[in-house]
From TrEMBL:
Entry GO terms, CC: ATP-binding cassette (ABC) transporter complex; outer membrane-bounded periplasmic space
GO molecular function: peptide transmembrane transporter activity
Record keywords: Signal
Compartmental location: Periplasm
A biological process from GO: peptide transport
Solute-binding protein family domain residues: 75-429
UniProt-recorded name of the protein: ABC transporter substrate-binding protein
Family: Belongs to the bacterial solute-binding protein 5 family.
Chain segments annotated as coiled-coil in the UniProt record: none
A Pfam family of this chain: SBP_bac_5
Domain of life: Bacteria
Amino acid sequence: MTTMTRILGSVALAALLPMTAFAGKADDTVRVAFSKDLDTADAYFSSARESTIFQFSISDRLIERNAETGEWDNVVAESFTWIDDVTLEFKLRDGITFHNGEKVTADDAVWTFNHFSDPATGVAMPNTVNWIKNAEKIDDLTFRVNLKAPMPVALDYIASSMPIYPAKYYQEVGPEGYAKNPIGTGRYKVKSIDPGRGYTLEAYEGYEEIGPARKKATIKNVEVRTIPDVNTQMADLFSGSIDFMWQVPEDQAQRVAARGGYTVTQAPSVRFGYVSMDASGRTGFEAFKDKRVRQAVNHALDRVSLRDAFFAPTSTITNSICNPLQFGCEQDVATYEYNPEKAKELLKEAGYEKGFSVDFYAYRDRQAAEAMAQMLDDVGIKTNLTFLQYSAIAEKVLKNEVPASFMTWGSGSVLDVAASTSKFFDGSDIDDVRNPELTALLKEADTTTDQAKRKELYSKALKLVADEAYWVPLWAYTTNYVYSSDLNYVPNADEYVRLYEMSWK
């Protein structure tokens, strides 16, 4: 019996409950289930998708990429201009207000850019802001962002990761006060936040509708519930307690589709999975410093069977630590076929004939993680598989306490390797590799405006990562969405659930 057969034999599918009427449309409240809690209401201090979705709901961006054309739409900004390769000028729309009624001005934008790009502020994703030299006010509605060096993905980071905050209010209440009572410029304002349980939003009556990128929300209220267990989510969907769920396992989505009565759809995403290994020994764990051990881990994992068993067939195997949708994600690199016997031979050559034990962390896709742990166990790598919230694992990474993990990365939905591979191997304290040659290649690619040159540099970097078997690339995710037949919603490839784009039929 194969490892995959054993794992699948132990998986019990949730029973489908009788379908009842949905209540959301009756009281104009859409009820949404998320499996992970909102770790903070201040998106600058979180790398979790749930926090970004929350901020997208309450804070408009300066600009937003049009999902159909790929071009930039102005949102809070009226216009933007590149003065030169390192100077970007924005003009704000006149009359946009925060939820407290205060007008958005250049002072707010300048303070936001300067405060959150300051290393002392300690944002969760430094790569999204560490390219900023400073911001300066030109007039009440105009400001400039000065870059440290050319940054081809500057606009992507501004669009995905940099909402403008109310400077006066934030400085008055501080980070903790803002996280408890956040305000923004978005379609929805916060009604309540209940840590561990979810939050509720209500449409902001003062929202000014300007063009296609600034349309008012059509549903008055949103209730987001934290429900970690997908079977509980499914039961709540069938009973009418919730209207929308996402990141639905493939087997569950297929059964709902066969049943009928609900909308079941999927969309590609920039998210990809990987297995990390501490190749530098920064955690004090030595085994992964040996290339042969890392190669053994790569050979031990049957990526195709894992994908086929637990994910949508449209989820593509990736050969590099990035998503093939991203610019520069070279796929013509060294690969390691599933070969457990070869994995055992490599471990023996490395002096681990009897194997070893290692702490192995994960935060999602439990069945796939358990199957991976079993595959590693089968070649002699005994895993202590531990499930934690994403934020808890991120904290342990900062403390050098994660020698190996199964993780995913959504790149802030930026379609460029600068937002993925470059983040992982940047030479920082949390870099598992700390290879100066690799870091130099990535940093040069990140700051070069010549796209052909960038592609060449990223190719060299990713070939180096693969040759050294630093990590294990897994697959690019396709996301399943299941929701009430009364609800209109079209998911985007950027994996942001735009609550404000939902409407009733």
